[in-house]
Amino acid sequence: MEMHIALLPGDGIGPEVIAQAVKVVNAVGQKFGHTITFKEGLVGACAIDATGDPYPDATHEICAGSDAVLFGAIGDPKYDNDPKAKVRPEQGLLRMRQKLGLFANVRPTFTFPSLVHKSPLKLDRVDGVDLVFFRELTGGVYFGEPRGRNEQGTKAFDTNVYSKEEIVRLARMGFEAAQKRRKLLTCVDKANVMATSRLWRETVQELAPEYPDVKVEYEFVDAVAMRLIQWPKAYDVLITENLFGDILTDEASVISGSMGLMPSASLGSKVKLFEPIHGSYPQAAGKDIANPLGTVLSAAMMFDYAFGLAEEAKLISDVVNLSLAEGVVTEDIAEGGKAYKTSEVGDWLAAKIL
Amino acid sequence: MEMHIALLPGDGIGPEVIAQAVKVVNAVGQKFGHTITFKEGLVGACAIDATGDPYPDATHEICAGSDAVLFGAIGDPKYDNDPKAKVRPEQGLLRMRQKLGLFANVRPTFTFPSLVHKSPLKLDRVDGVDLVFFRELTGGVYFGEPRGRNEQGTKAFDTNVYSKEEIVRLARMGFEAAQKRRKLLTCVDKANVMATSRLWRETVQELAPEYPDVKVEYEFVDAVAMRLIQWPKAYDVLITENLFGDILTDEASVISGSMGLMPSASLGSKVKLFEPIHGSYPQAAGKDIANPLGTVLSAAMMFDYAFGLAEEAKLISDVVNLSLAEGVVTEDIAEGGKAYKTSEVGDWLAAKIL
Ligand SMILES: CC(C)[C@H](C(=O)O)[C@@H](O)C(=O)O
Ligand SMILES: CC(C)[C@H](C(=O)O)[C@@H](O)C(=O)O
């Protein structure tokens, strides 16, 4: 197969972890006979520094012309805590999501036997957790108008808005994922307060009969925030709007004890994007110590979701598990054992694949 | 002192737990020589059943004419999962908050040595947690206009709106609480996305110099959702808007392992309201098995916050701790020991006070 992949390393440790994913992707390509080409673009703080724009047109063209985007991380401390800054790296992220039409963010949470003891939760609560969020990513309060201030600047407002179609296309992805998994779908909303949430709930109720094999539950966002800690194993597939998804996927990500390893996918009409859920970790940048496994597992999701190549995806996650079992890991999870460099882990994984 | 207290038992186990708080309040009154009168009102599902209105005018008059309101719980399964129901118990709650001007919801999370092992979190993460949320309660997306649907019903929208004054009065409460505690204030927002959040952050930044002894931190809501699980001891006082507060206070409530014991206060211009954070627990209603300690501790907060009677408040929490130490507790926390009835726990606490 021919694959055109856009690489957006971004800021902080982004370039280092992306470099390891490239090694792994190339190894898989070589082994399975795929022709893979990469094009690199700037995004985030480094793009602001170079061009004044966190998501330059040139980067968008590279992404729009690719089959998939591999993304590292963005964010730089110099843009933090400055609510009045005119240009911020996150704006690039939001514009990229919107311009590429990436309306569904897929965020799995699962555990690794060798890392689950690092969870802040007790073992019986978290061991074997396997859930996945489908977060709506291009609607809601993130993009709704009007937003801003009154003339005197003494009042601020935001608009949360959802159309039925936006809900339908996201919900269908959730239903279909549930059909391939444990057949439980949880619709997360605040239908006792918000008009948008009532449209979500109604729309999901209308779709449900088309998926008779899927059990559908409706839960308020505050209840889910509790149950994710109390009994996360109760969940299979969760669907929700943009802002609730932002909060709950981050909450869910820490329960596994291996946030640095969690991958994600953002799906849309044509191009699909894959990125680790961890941040740009500026303190570690350039030191060759960052954990590349979240990015490598995001590349595995890419083979699966963007190219329908499940075997390739499986091989990548198998070698990742092997690296954990054999202790070929970075210092964050080495626990007294030898700590490998970021680049060494990438080399090891690529060699195992070939 | 003369105290006029409105009692709103509400639904489910509400009446049973309120009855125990009344015993305790009366005992404290007798011991310290306070004259206490109670007036009872309907709220929630029981008020809908009786009058068609979840917060009848008669109830509002009782509350508005009192110094403090003791509130049980509301909610009935027959109103759940029906997004189209015309009248819902929650509407009564929201109207009550608004009409009484209860703009600040105070939600502490702390641990009890004898119960902390019930936390879903590992002991080292949670032992000694002591944080308190100040959640804005009468603004934001809960009340913002416009809200609703377009004509065809294919689009729904909500408005989140905050004025500077709404933020200032809530934030000042947080600053003052922090001054009396560990002097750390965390402002929780989503200033990288929302205009309302940017006004929150700006306003808090403007107030901060007036409280030079308080260290102020600004964190995004998604980050707080993570850190509340990873390291809740890092927090002291948190301030936030209505919707974020709804989600995060519920999340915080389960980490202590004793959600059934957590009290809360809602403060406003004149009347103050006190309630346990647990729900109406309909399965247990009428069985004399519900845990009354959350309501009793809410009564303790009442003496403190509504009447400035710290000694009375302290005595109540001391006897609650004694009941835990001596195992005079309901079945939810009896753990193999003898399970006392709801009413027996109330009698025991009142007797200990006298
Ligand atoms: C950086 C920020 C705008 C972004 C969001 O809120 O979507 C981030 O938190 C995320 O979840 O990817
Ligand atoms: C019942 C509901 C409207 C309410 C809220 O969202 O405020 C509840 O969740 C709470 O936190 O008191």
Automatic annotation (TrEMBL), chains A, B:
Binding site residues for substrate: 97, 107, 135, 222
Pathway annotation from the record: Amino-acid biosynthesis; L-leucine biosynthesis; L-leucine from 3-methyl-2-oxobutanoate: step 3/4
Amino-acid biosynthesis as UniProt keyword: yes
Details of cofactor binding: Binds 1 Mg(2+) or Mn(2+) ion per subunit.
Keyword Plastid: no
Quaternary assembly: Homodimer.
Designated name of the protein: 3-isopropylmalate dehydrogenase
Organism of this sequence: Algoriphagus aquatilis
Lineage of the species this protein comes from: Bacteria, Pseudomonadati, Bacteroidota, Cytophagia, Cytophagales
Gene label: leuB
